[in-house]
Amino acid sequence: MSDNIETSSSGCTAASKRALVIGGSLAGLFAGTLLLRAGWNVDIFERSPDDLDSRGGGIVLQPEVVEVFRQAGVDFSMHALGVSSQYRVVFHPDGSIQSRRLAPQTQTSWSLIYSTMRRAFGTQSYHQGRPLADIRRNPGGRVTAVFDDGSEETGDLLVGADGSNSTVRQLLWTDAEPRYAGYLAWRGLVPEDAMPEITRETLHGDFAFANNRESHILGYLVPGERNNTTPGQRFYNWVWYRTVDDVQLRDVMTDVDGRYRGYSIPEGKLAPAWREHIWRDADALLPPAFRAIVRATAQPFAQAIRDLSVDRMVKGRVILVGDAASIPRPHTAASTSKAATNALALQTALLRLPDDVDKALASWEPQQTALGRYLREHGCQVGNHLLFGSASPKQVG
Ligand SMILES: Cc1cc2nc3c(=O)[nH]c(=O)nc-3n(C[C@H](O)[C@H](O)[C@H](O)COP(=O)(O)OP(=O)(O)OC[C@H]3O[C@@H](n4cnc5c(N)ncnc54)[C@H](O)[C@@H]3O)c2cc1C
Fold it and tell me: Are 386 and 240 in contact (CB under 8 A)?
């Protein structure tokens, strides 16, 4: 516990308060770790029985995530946090350069942030294989989480950090449903040493884009296996937005084993017919360097683009953070930084008003809902312009 957070202005410690965090991915780890630092007792309950896994899909490193690392006491050096790119380069479909401008930034990966935060939070109060099934709000403000196996935990605050299909949201925010945006992201990771020559020569080291009709692709280098940022050991990460109607979406999201997965298909599970579809589309729509990297991707994966932002993030002592509260489109590069912002602001509010949790939550909520709304609107504008050439999606077939 750090000096400035040990006692409240009235001399009461916050240590007796207990937070139940539902979901142990990035938003849950950000909020859980910062609440711990604010003197709360925190337990994180994650649905998955195993460590979460991603080979390291790319995330633009935003200052809010670095700030969470700082607040969480993570010992880090900036160069180990990701891979730098210098220029933003946009290509025409024929491979000629449309524009090139200096815009240095750092790209990191989901797995680097996840593994860093898992270490920061520790293992003792991180409970795997505990899917939330129900919530009971008790008189006096305490809240009880009921899990799939019938077990129960009671705390002073329940943080719904359970992602875009949040159970917490479905239980208490019954009218808030994500809406499909009319397009998906095909995604891929290729080991740096397996990059085709043309891609290495043309795209390596920059943040590259290419547009075509109902098609927008981008790519950059990210840390490799075990978060390795050594040149030669990294991954090239690409994300390709393509329009897909509702019927096709259902087919894409039905995996190689015939199982319907809803809104994302992980690596290794995309049905082979769709991998061939991607390759054919790449030949028709992408400049040569992007075409080559898409074709060199052994196991592309997919994610449907959806919109959501809730009007309220607080219901009594239950709150929503991260993707559970709002899903900005990836063009904003803000999902993870928004989860970080939610957690940083929550910590500040609870430190400022340690004796009045309700008042602290009331002071936390307005800016966070405004941020979610702003990112949704901004993401819709950018995405609809890129994919549909307009501010709103047209019917796609
Ligand atoms: C395995 C994994 C890999 C990812 N890889 C990338 C990536 O490469 N690039 C990228 O931009 N984004 C990635 N994301 C998404 C990214 O983490 C989020 O968009 C963003 O960071 C906000 O995170 P979140 O914690 O709010 O949501 P999420 O990351 O979706 O996490 C929600 C968590 O809640 C858990 N959960 C769901 N329901 C319940 C329940 N009923 N009870 C208990 N737990 C529950 C889920 O298992 C999950 O761990 C990934 C997410 C996951 C889970």
Answer: no
Answer yes or no: is the C-beta of 264 below 6 A from any ligand 1 atom: no
172 and 320, same domain (yes or no) = yes
Domain membership flag for residue 114: no
Q: 27 CA to middle of ligand 1, Å?
A: 8
Residue 45 beta carbon below 6 angstroms from any ligand 1 atom = yes
Ligand 1: does its nearest atom lie under 6 Å from the Cβ of 28?
Answer: yes
Q: What is the pLDDT along the chain (397 residues), one digit of tens a residue?
A: 332 222 233 333 445 899 999 999 999 999 999 999 999 999 999 999 988 877 667 899 999 999 999 999 998 877 788 999 999 999 999 999 999 999 999 999 999 999 999 999 999 999 999 999 999 999 888 999 999 999 999 999 999 999 999 999 999 999 999 999 999 999 999 999 999 999 999 998 899 999 999 999 999 999 999 889 999 999 999 999 999 999 999 999 999 999 999 999 999 999 999 999 999 999 999 999 999 999 999 999 999 999 999 999 999 999 999 999 999 999 999 999 999 999 999 999 999 999 999 999 999 999 999 999 999 999 999 999 999 986 555 433 2
Say how far apart CA 386 and CA 181 lie, in whole Å: 12
Residue 163 in contact with ligand 1 by CB distance below 6 A: yes
Q: Is residue 199, in this structure, part of any structural domain at all?
A: yes
Maximum distance among all Cα pairs of the chain, rounded to whole angstroms? 68
CA triplet 376, 220, 92: central angle to 5 degrees? 85
Ligand 1: nearest atom to the Cα of 324: 26
Mark whether 36 and 159 lie in a shared domain: yes
Report the CATH number that the domain containing residue 225 is assigned in CATH.
3.30.9.60
The verdict on the CB of residue 347 being under 6 Å from ligand 1 is: no
Same domain membership, residue 320 and residue 275? no
**Domain co-membership, 147 together with 222:** no
What does the alpha-carbon distance between residue 273 and residue 338 come to, in Å, rounded to a whole number? 36
Query: Which amino acid is it at 371?
Result: L
